[in-house]
């Protein structure tokens, strides 16, 4: 069997904060094994790391092999804080006013990917399956091909694909298209993302849409499909049921939100909606509290510092207005919470708020559903901007973060929903979350990639055959 080699900027390393990508892939890698290659600006911080050739260390201690490609810290900042998170992240999340393009960001982004390609190429065996993750590594396949790598290479974008109009904000957009085309299979979260990608390619005369559904850009043929990412639902359900974490006081109704403190998550809108709820539903004052967990992230980027200040101010304002001696309406935690505690808190909360302004999938929506007690489940309030909306939107309550009053009314409806309806909606969502879990996601992607690999092997055998041996059609 071929070995799976995963490449992503971040990988699970002890105290590293984890977003959706690491959580999902770690679940997949722990079951199947393989090699995970990440990027590390400062190898000294890695406990137990051992030298592994030029610019690389290996990090033992997991159920799979881990290698960190070591890069200079200042170039890492220009690549990670700069091009990845000040150009591509706002671009993909439609926050064009936050894009900051600098030539040295792009240069560092390309240089780090070239350096990473050299490390990956050194570890790669001819029959390995290579799966690259996320916007940090758009040029990696091109850099690997330049190193002579011929393996099948898959790519999965965890965040939304930019729209056909927004893509023009990127300087050198055709290079970006050409980077993408060096992959054999490009996985996106939703059908909506696939439509955006098709619209983007359609704008360029070098694109050709082939009869078998694949795409040709310049001299490369590749495929773009959606593979909605899942969670290890059975395990999370289990952790939630066993967790000892408690929301106190129990007599109160609880609303929960939990994410990285990112401007794409719509947190200010959510706090405003909660304030509006307390203002309009006077009976709820003192009876419902909102626990918002927002773990700090990318704090050296200005936009993240600003959103943090805004949230502190907003939660202070709502609390100042509605608090009482024994009542704090908003409990705002600006830090992460361990996964087992989080699972228990989700299980106890009456309402889970997942109301981003833009989001690739949003695994919290799925975790909230998985964590619920099927006999007395809470209600998921979801925005149409989360990728999860494509799978769960029919059964969740839908809130529009751009309409604060509508969102407040939706939260009120969630708090009032009768048990029977809660069970019915939850059952439908739980089925989807359990069936389309993380193993289903990685298997579907890897099967599709394997099919591409076999297809192109077959073609290359055909090309090598003398003309009279070819099968005519
Ligand atoms: C999102 C991205 C991931 C990223 C995670 C955490 O889920 O898709 O690629 O790892 O956020 O962000 P960070 O910048 O801390 O790695």
Automatic annotation (TrEMBL):
GO terms for molecular function: alpha,alpha-trehalose-phosphate synthase (UDP-forming) activity. It comes from the Bacteria. It holds the Pfam family Glyco_transf_20. InterPro entries: Glyco_trans_20. One of its GO terms (biological process) is trehalose biosynthetic process. Belongs to the glycosyltransferase 20 family. This is Trehalose-6-phosphate synthase. It comes from Roseibium limicola.
């Amino acid at each position: 069997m071929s070995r799976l080699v995963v490449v992503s900027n971040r990988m699970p390393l002890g105290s590293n904060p984890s977003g959706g990508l690491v959580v999902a892939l770690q679940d997949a890698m722990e079951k199947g094994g393989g090699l995970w290659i990440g990027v590390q600006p400062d190898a000294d911080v890695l406990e137990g790391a051992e030298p592994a050739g030029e610019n690389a260390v290996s990090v033992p201690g997991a159920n799979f092999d881990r290698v960190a490609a070591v890069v200079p810290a200042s170039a890492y900042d220009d690549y990670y804080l700069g091009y990845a998170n000040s150009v591509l992240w706002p671009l993909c999340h439609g926050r064009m006013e936050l894009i900051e393009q600098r030539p040295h960001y792009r240069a560092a982004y390309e240089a780090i990917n070239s350096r990473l390609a050299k490390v990956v190429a050194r570890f790669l065996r001819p029959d390995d399956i290579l799966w690259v993750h996320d916007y940090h590594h758009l040029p990696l396949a091109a850099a690997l091909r330049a190193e002579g790598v011929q393996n099948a290479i898959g790519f999965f974008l965890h965040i939304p694909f930019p729209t056909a109009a927004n893509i023009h904000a990127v300087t050198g957009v055709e290079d970006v298209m050409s980077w993408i085309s060096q992959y054999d299979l490009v996985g996106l979260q939703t059908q909506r993302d696939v439509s955006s990608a098709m619209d983007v390619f359609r704008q360029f005369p070098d694109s050709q849409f082939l009869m078998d559904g694949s795409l040709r850009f310049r001299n490369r043929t590749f495929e773009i499909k959606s593979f909605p990412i899942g969670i290890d639902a059975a395990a999370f359900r289990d952790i939630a049921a066993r967790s000892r974490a408690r929301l106190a006081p129990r007599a109160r109704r609880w609303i929960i939100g939990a994410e990285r403190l990112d401007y794409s998550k719509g947190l200010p809108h959510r706090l405003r909606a909660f304030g509006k709820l307390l203002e309009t539903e006077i009976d709820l004052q003192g009876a419902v509290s909102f626990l918002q967990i927002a773990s700090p992230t990318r704090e050296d980027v200005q936009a993240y510092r600003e959103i943090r200040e805004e949230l502190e101010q907003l939660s202070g304002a709502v609390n100042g207005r509605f608090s009482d001696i024994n009542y704090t309406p908003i409990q705002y935690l600006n830090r992460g919470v361990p996964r087992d505690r989080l699972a228990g808190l989700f299980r106890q909360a009456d309402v889970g708020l997942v109301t981003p302004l833009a989001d690739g999938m949003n695994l919290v929506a799925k975790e909230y559903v998985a964590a619920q007690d099927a006999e007395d489940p809470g209600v998921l309030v979801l925005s149409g901007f989360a990728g999860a909306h494509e799978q769960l939107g029919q059964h969740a309550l839908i809130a529009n973060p751009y309409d604060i009053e509508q969102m407040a009314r939706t939260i009120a409806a969630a708090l009032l929903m009768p048990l029977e309806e809660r069970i019915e909606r939850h059952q439908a969502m739980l089925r989807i979350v359990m069936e389309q879990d993380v193993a289903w996601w990685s298997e579907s992607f890897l099967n599709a990639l394997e099919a591409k690999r076999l297809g192109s092997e077959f073609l290359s055998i055909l090309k090598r055959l003398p003309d009279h041996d070819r099968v005519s059609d």
